[in-house]
Amino acid sequence: MLTGLKTLIERFANSTSTDDLFDSINAVYRDADRDPELKGWFRHMNQYVRKCLKQQGYILRDEATEEWNKLYDQGEFLLRDRYRNHTDRVVDEIKFLTHQFDEDEQNKAFGQAMQKLFLDLGNDENGKPTFKPHLLKDLSEVILP
Q1: Fewest CB within 10 angstroms: 12, 110, 122, 143, which?
Q2: Model-level pTM greater than 0.85?
Q3: What is the pLDDT of residues 56-87, one digit of tens each?
Q4: How would you class 97 by CB atoms within 10 Å of its CB: exposed for 0-12, middle for 13-18, buried for 19 or more?
Q5: Phi, psi angle pair for 123, to nearest 5°
Q6: Contact in structure between 9 and 18 (CB atoms under 8 Å)
């Protein structure tokens, strides 16, 4: 599954390899294997996110805010101080890939085609907004399936 995801990302990113990104992420995982505090922070963050998603109303409670503030402060220290070089590398790799997404000719063509489609769907021949139910039907019954 990860190989498929990697291939998909690379195809959309101007056929740019994601090896450096995954290497930078793996460096953080290796750090966590050697540092119980970092590993515990990742585990606690995972538990917090799951609690927010699973326990109805938890996210609205003061307890959730207090827990988040502690996680944030500890994460700020770990990721922006102790492991700053590794964190910066991950961010730099993500920025690079994002730039490659923007540079990909097929992505540009797709974006232009989508823009034209929505202009055609929502505007008449004079460029004035209008509703075209027959095009919406085409979109939902032909294009999307």
Answers
A1: 143
A2: no
A3: 999 999 999 999 999 999 999 999 999 999 99
A4: buried
A5: -130, 150
A6: yes
State the Cα–Cα distance between residues 23 and 38, nearest whole angstrom: 18
User: In angstroms, what is the C-alpha Rg of the chain?
Assistant: 22
Residue with tokens 């995954």: 22
DSSP string of the chain, one letter each residue: -HHHHHHHHHHHTTT---HHHHHHHHHHHHHHHH-HHHHHHHHHHHHHHHHHHHSTTGGGSHHHHHHHHHHHHHHHHIIIIITHHHHHHHHHHHHHHHHHHHH-HHHHHHHHHHHHHHHHHHB-TTS-B---HHHHHHIIIII--
**Taking the chain, what is the end-to-end CA distance rounded to the nearest angstrom?**
24
- In degrees, rounded to 5, the angle at the alpha carbon of residue 125 between the alpha carbons of residues 123 and 129 is 25
Mean predicted confidence (pLDDT) in 88-117: 87
Exposure of 126 in the CB half-sphere (CA atoms within 13 A): 3
The 10s digit of each residue's pLDDT in 91-100 is: 999 999 889 8
Residue in 66, 82, 72, 105 with CA at minimum distance from that of residue 28? 82
